[in-house]
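Sequence in, structure out. Go.
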Amino acid sequence: MSSSVRISPLFLGLVGATALGGVLACTSSHAAQIGGVVLIVLGGWATSLCLHEFGHAITAYRGGDRAVRAKGYLSLDPRHYTDPVLSIVLPLIFVAIGGIPLPGGAVWINHHALRDRRVESMVSLAGPGTNLVLGLLLTGAVATAPMPVALAAGLSYLAFLQVIAFVLNILPIPGLDGYGALEPWLSGPAREFGEKARPWAPLVLFLLLLGVPVVGTVFFRLAFLVYGLVGGDPMLAMTGSALFRFWE
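Output:
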């Protein structure tokens, strides 16, 4: 399996930018700390988008779809995860303006090559599961390793974004991974309806989240609940958010 994975230099560059942000966040300069948090969040979020899609791809590869390797999905190269603007740039812009982080790109899976419906469900769950694991690892690092406040705040906000991505993607709405996990088990008519709803259902969800206060409130309360369950510190996450959006 390890010989099938070829890590892209571009992905390593994203990891390096995130690490540089961590170094800057540990300095005594407030300006450097702000720059460090920005790098942590943007670099870390771009890295997590690649890992999210890699989670789908490696699970599909192990489940029978060998074509994902030829498509470059096992390289962690963001250029292979559909359109770079829709997959990387636009989600980063949404993060930068403080909105709900978009799911990002997608990998095209040959579902007919997968062994069974259980594998199909696992492929869909692997992406948001990756975000949840990343959130858990980040909150665990903040809770156990002594570190400057700016670094802890930046990592905490990045962890909160991972939790938001998990909660958003796990919703059973056509076009999102939660629905993808259920789809193999649905009846023919239900799957046909889901296929028709797939292009517009996520857009309707985002409009509700951004335009209907009660929907957004319920969503973020759920996100904070999950964030607390994985050991996150809400105050540190809010501090990280404030440092990241320093211009507000």
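Check: The first helix runs from residue 9 to 25. Residues 140 and 226 are 14 Å apart (CA to CA).
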